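Design a sequence for this backbone.
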């Protein structure tokens, strides 16, 4: 997300190096190669687009997996499974203590400055924290299983599933660390295969075996853990080859490793407040709903949450490559290239997210019934609200990441604390009387406030404008198309296939109106060889 006003004049002075940055970082852009930043921006967008294809494949597989689980399990069993997954997400987001964010920010900067002792020291520190605290969390949950019944959940089945699935917390945290590491060196192929093909495929295989053998939810929980562990093993086998190919492994010396604990901690510890905000808007709401209204209401909320989260898939996919690229621009003091990178990436995020938004917002009720059957029709309005929240957050770009890259830790902490308090208040007020619907409204209001605050901070910290008027046709067409599709659904109530076609037409209109701002021909010149593609130059 961004900042008010027009883009400020380019600042030729590199930004001040905040605490924890290598002061001797060498400028990586040779004076004789002024086109390098543009090529890197284009390369980041192309790499992100490749990952998006993989992400779409994984989303399709994950959606099938979710639908099969929801249809196979009873509502109570599905609610218990969803409750356990919420706790796993909560624990997994905290065990890294924020150190996991050091990978995508510090490693590109240390690489630019050729500071390899700190490069490997940071990697060792992050992995050590995740593994150590993750193992501690697993042992505590297993050992206190009996005590947890009636204290964190009234359903003994939910606690029993948690005791099995808690191992997923450190596994998924470590998986995220390794993904960020591969992204630092643009290893898109490895991320594509491991994260978007193998991972979802293994979970789908677990569900297929579950149904074929008529097993129960305990089998599902254990299968998810085994599938996650297999993914980590694959990443581990690919890591040495990737570091060797990037010319990094040859600089590894165990005797020279320097762990920059103070530098990394001064950046990461304050960001635990961000984890609190994100977890409040995902896992905590389900926990409150479950405690007040029971597992059936948790199912009402959680059954559509993964579908609404699809609105964030472009954002999260593009962020994988965006953060290291932005960190390199920061290390060089190239603010003009940073502004171009930010807004071009944000525009692509908005346009590529729109088809999903049209389906999950404008066509929320028919999509919910088609996916999860008539018994979940009442979750349609919840899907629409959650989708709007996610799309607002995604369509404005990686504002939070950019603020942190430019050293806006104080601003980040203040925004996160304020947002967490606001969301907690909203959840406590809205969930008891309105159940799952109240949780959805609380999430939407929180996302709106969250992004307003971040956009204001972005201009102050990074000099990126809140809105670039060059992208007004894109965002205006998105709003107009979403409204038209929604009105058609309410008034005409077309069959689902016709509504999907309408959403497709709306997506093409959005793409056509934004073609000049997106610079499609410049970013993907090979597409111009296809018939009719020159219209999008």
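Sequence:
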């Amino acid at each position: 997300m961004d900042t008010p006003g027009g883009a400020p004049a380019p600042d030729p002075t590199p930004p001040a190096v905040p605490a924890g940055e290598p002061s001797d970082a060498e400028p990586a852009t040779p004076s004789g190669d002024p086109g390098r930043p543009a090529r890197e921006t284009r390369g980041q967008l192309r790499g992100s687009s490749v990952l998006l294809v993989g992400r779409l494949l994984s989303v399709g597989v994950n959606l099938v997996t979710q639908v099969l689980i929801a249809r196979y399990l009873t509502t109570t069993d599905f609610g218990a499974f969803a409750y356990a997954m919420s706790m796993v997400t909560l624990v997994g987001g905290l065990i890294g203590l924020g150190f996991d964010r050091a990978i995508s920010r510090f490693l590109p900067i240390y690489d630019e400055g050729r500071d390899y002792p700190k490069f490997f020291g940071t990697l060792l520190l992050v992995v050590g924290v995740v593994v150590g605290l993750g193992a501690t969390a697993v042992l505590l949950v297993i050992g206190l299983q009996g005590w947890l019944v009636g204290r964190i959940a009234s359903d003994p089945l939910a606690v029993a599933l948690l005791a099995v699935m808690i191992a997923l917390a450190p596994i998924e945290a470590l998986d995220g660390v390794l993904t960020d590491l591969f992204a630092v060196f643009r290893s898109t192929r490895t991320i594509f295969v491991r994260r978007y093909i193998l991972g979802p495929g293994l979970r789908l295989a677990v569900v297929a075996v579950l149904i074929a053998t008529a097993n129960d939810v305990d089998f599902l929980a254990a299968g998810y853990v085994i599938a996650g562990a297999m993914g980590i093993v694959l990443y581990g086998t690919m890591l040495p080859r990737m570091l060797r190919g990037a010319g990094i492994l040859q600089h590894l010396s165990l005797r020279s490793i320097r762990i920059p604990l103070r530098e990394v901690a001064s950046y990461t510890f304050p960001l635990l407040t961000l984890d609190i905000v994100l977890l409040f808007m995902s896992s905590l709401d389900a926990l409150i709903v479950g405690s007040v209204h029971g597992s059936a209401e948790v199912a009402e909320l959680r059954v559509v949450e993964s579908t609404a989260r699809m609105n964030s898939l472009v954002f999260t996919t593009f962020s994988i490559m965006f953060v290291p690229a932005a960190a390199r621009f920061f290390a060089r003091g190239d603010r003009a290239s940073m502004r171009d990178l930010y807004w071009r990436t944000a525009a692509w995020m908005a346009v590529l997210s729109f088809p999903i938004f049209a389906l999950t917002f404008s066509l929320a009720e028919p999509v919910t019934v088609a996916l999860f059957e008539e018994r979940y029709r009442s979750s349609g309005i919840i899907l629409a609200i959650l989708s709007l929240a996610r799309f607002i957050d995604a369509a404005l770009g990686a504002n939070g990441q950019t603020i942190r890259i430019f050293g806006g830790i104080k601003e980040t902490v203040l925004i996160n604390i304020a947002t967490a308090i606001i969301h907690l208040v909203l959840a406590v007020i809205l969930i008891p009387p309105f159940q799952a619907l109240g949780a959805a409204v609380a999430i939407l209001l929180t996302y709106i406030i969250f992004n307003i605050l971040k956009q204001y901070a972005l201009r102050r910290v990074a000099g990126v404008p809140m809105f670039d008027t060059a992208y007004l046709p894109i965002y205006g067409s998105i709003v107009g198309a979403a409204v038209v599709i929604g009105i058609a659904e309410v008034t005409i109530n077309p069959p689902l296939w016709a509504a999907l076609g309408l959403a497709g037409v709306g997506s093409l209109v959005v793409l056509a109106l934004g073609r000049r701002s997106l610079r499609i021909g410049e970013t993907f010149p090979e597409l111009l060889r296809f018939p009719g593609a020159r219209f999008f130059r």
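Residues 75-282+293-302 form one domain.
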